[in-house]
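W.,

You were right to be curious about this one. When I first looked at the sequence I had no strong expectations either way, so I just let the prediction run and decided to look at it fresh. Below is the sequence, 176 residues in total, followed by the output.
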Amino acid sequence: MRRYTVIVMLLMLSQFKAWSSVTDSIPADPKDVSTADALLAAVYSTISGPAGETRNWDRFRTLFLPEARLVATGKRADGMMGKRSMSVEDYIKTSGPFLEKDGFYEKEIGRKTDQFGSVMQVFSTYESRKTLQDEKPFMRGINSIQLWFDGKRWWVLTIFWQAESPDLLIPAQYIN
């Protein structure tokens, strides 16, 4: 039994070491990851831009843990709820062309934050426009964002979102 406990402890320690040694393949700009506010601003900034402009996907990648997920959810055409879970690379491949072709600006209009130690949960309410001059947004919703602080910088672990719809309006408490 004691031998089994030692083996389990060694396995746990080796996994902890792997988690604590995450490194960027492309160095992050310290200004983007030094605070949770800066990280969220960088996320919104990297996906936003005019039609025809390539986004800085290298910068985008530096904001996320390697195992990060982006998850879109909403009502499908058949009326059932659905979700699409993507890696960062999946998101770039599937959403990148849309964002760059039509123009896309996403802006935070409200935020509720809870934090315990190095774990932060953010409800970030957004509105989206195709151009900065658009009078009204074409979409609004809430991003549920999980962040992690590794002692040196902030990382995005998950962005899980749902767009507003006529039968699901954003409650006033989530809009500043």
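Here's what jumped out at me. The chain has one domain: 26-174. And, maybe more interesting for your project: Helices lie at 2-20, 30-33, 36-47, 57-61, 88-102.

Coffee later to discuss?

I.
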